[in-house]
Design goal:
Elements lengths: L7 E2 L10 E2 L35 E8 L17 E6 L2 E2 L5 E3 L3 E11 L3 E7 L2 E2 L5 E3 L3 E11 L4 E7 L19 E9 L2
Antiparallel strand pairs: 1-2, 3-4, 3-13, 5-6, 6-12, 7-11, 7-13, 8-9, 8-10, 8-12
Length: 190
């Protein structure tokens, strides 16, 4: 690119996204492609390695009609007896899961339920009020939230909320002739 007089043009030899007033041909400096400052100095020392990303997660599921043979009373835990994947988050029994280290966890669940109910998450046996999700019956009950744990080996489960009006029956073959699934996903984000 030669001299462009006093016109304003995007300089094609730089990766600038701004328009500059060109008066002369300049070369791009890789540290300052638009010549807004002087040439680069020496590279500084490498900083310390940052913390590694959390790797605790698990995916657990149920298949109906075989996995939940009877209705779940209000306050009772929803079983997710099958393990899809699990890294760090471990199963205690069909309904309870161990969060191994303190941190922030993203929790998501979905379960097809016959009755009008509310499902919720319990942490160390205490129902988390902000987690309650209702469904009108014959539909998916879907919920999610983030929780923060402060101690190792925190116990989590999804339950038919203690304030539900009905026992929860998991729908068999919901929407077709094959088994219905319900699932619980636990993922540590920090």
């Amino acid at each position: 690119m030669g001299k462009c007089g006093k016109c304003y043009k995007k300089r094609k030899h730089c990766r600038c996204v701004v328009f500059v007033k060109c008066r002369e041909k300049r070369r791009c400096d890789p540290c300052d492609p638009c010549n807004f400052r002087s040439p680069c100095g020496n590279t500084g020392p490498t900083g310390p390695t940052g913390p590694s990303a959390p790797t605790n997660n698990g995916f657990f599921y149920l298949l109906q009609p075989s996995d939940v043979p009877s209705p779940i009373a209000p306050g009772g835990p929803i079983p997710f007896p099958n393990t899809g994947i699990s890294a760090g988050v471990s199963r205690i029994d069909a309904s309870h899961f161990n969060l191994p280290v303190p941190g922030i966890y993203d929790i998501f669940w979905q379960v097809p339920i016959v009755q009008t109910v509310q499902l919720a998450v319990a942490v160390n046996g205490i129902e988390q009020l902000q987690s309650r999700t209702g469904s009108p019956g014959n539909s998916q009950n879907v919920g999610g939230l983030e929780i923060q744990t402060y101690a190792a080996n925190t116990i989590l489960n999804v339950l038919n909320s203690s304030v539900s009006r009905n026992s929860a029956t998991v729908i068999s073959n919901f929407g077709g002739s094959g088994p219905s699934s319900g699932s619980l996903k636990i993922h540590q984000v920090a």
